[in-house]
């Protein structure tokens, strides 16, 4: 039987089901069926949308670089980010991936005029009175390791908080941190691939 779950992964939870060091894992959120696995990565320090399934075709299509799927991140960065930095993020820039220089594909980015309505992080990011922060939305079609963090650092605005908000048309809208939702195959295929 095929299963599809969307979760709002909390900060500090590993993107796996077991951990030798005793850190919180996905198993702490829900009693998932044994053959269900996360599609793609979301670091322990990152929050947000994660899809878990045992449908190998979804896994293959989302992780295969030849199918370009848009992933949107809401990112809190250190400093008052500039339009110049946004343009650099959008046009592509050089970051280091596993010791080699890599030029990112064009992306879409914008600055939030007011911070997005997101749940408080536990623990909260370190507040520094004399250093402002800003929020941006960044949509990419790649998934290199730590890519978003490396991109914002490369334009001079280090990432403080990273939330994956959307994969294609699947979003975190109306979800709470740690929430798990079961979806039908039809819903998943419509939102990810535009067909039921």
UniProtKB/TrEMBL annotation:
User: GO:BP terms for this protein?
Assistant: pseudouridine synthesis; rRNA processing
Q: What is its EC number?
A: 5.4.99.-
Q: Name the keywords, alphabetized.
A: Isomerase
Q: Give the Pfam families listed for this entry.
A: PseudoU_synth_2
Pseudouridine synthase RsuA/RluA-like domain mapped to chain residues: 3-154
Q: Which domain of life is it from?
A: Bacteria
Xref: InterPro entries: PsdUridine_s_RsuA/RluB/E/F_cat, PsdUridine_synth_cat_dom_sf, PsdUridine_synth_RsuA/RluA, PsdUridine_synth_RsuA/RluB/E/F, PsdUridine_synth_RsuA/RluB_CS, RsuA_PseudoU_synthase, TruA/RsuA/RluB/E/F_N
GO MF terms listed in the record are: catalytic activity, acting on RNA; pseudouridine synthase activity; RNA binding
Family membership, please give it.
Belongs to the pseudouridine synthase RsuA family.
PANTHER family recorded: PSEUDOURIDINE SYNTHASE FAMILY PROTEIN-RELATED, RNA-BINDING S4 DOMAIN-CONTAINING PROTEIN
What is the name listed in the Swiss-Prot or TrEMBL entry for this protein? Answer: Pseudouridine synthase
Protein source organism: Raineya orbicola
């Amino acid at each position: 039987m095929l299963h599809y779950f969307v979760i709002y992964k909390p900060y500090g939870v590993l993107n796996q089901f077991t951990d030798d060091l005793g850190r919180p894992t996905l198993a702490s959120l829900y009693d998932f069926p044994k053959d269900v696995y996360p599609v793609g990565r979301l670091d322990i320090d990152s929050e947000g949308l994660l899809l878990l399934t045992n449908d190998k075709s979804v896994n293959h299509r989302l992780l295969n670089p030849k199918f370009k799927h848009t992933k949107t991140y809401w990112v809190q960065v250190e400093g008052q980010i500039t339009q110049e930095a946004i343009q650099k993020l959008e046009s592509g820039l050089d970051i280091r991936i596993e010791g080699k220089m890599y030029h990112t594909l064009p992306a879409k980015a914008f600055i939030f005029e007011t911070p997005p309505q997101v749940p408080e992080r536990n623990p909260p990011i370190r507040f520094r009175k004399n250093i402002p922060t800003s929020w941006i939305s960044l949509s990419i079609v790649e998934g290199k390791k730590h890519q978003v963090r490396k991109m914002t650092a490369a334009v001079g605005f280090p990432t403080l908080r990273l939330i994956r908000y959307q994969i294609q048309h699947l979003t975190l809208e109306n979800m709470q941190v740690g929430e798990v939702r079961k979806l039908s195959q039809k819903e998943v295929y419509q939102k990810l691939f535009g067909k039921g």
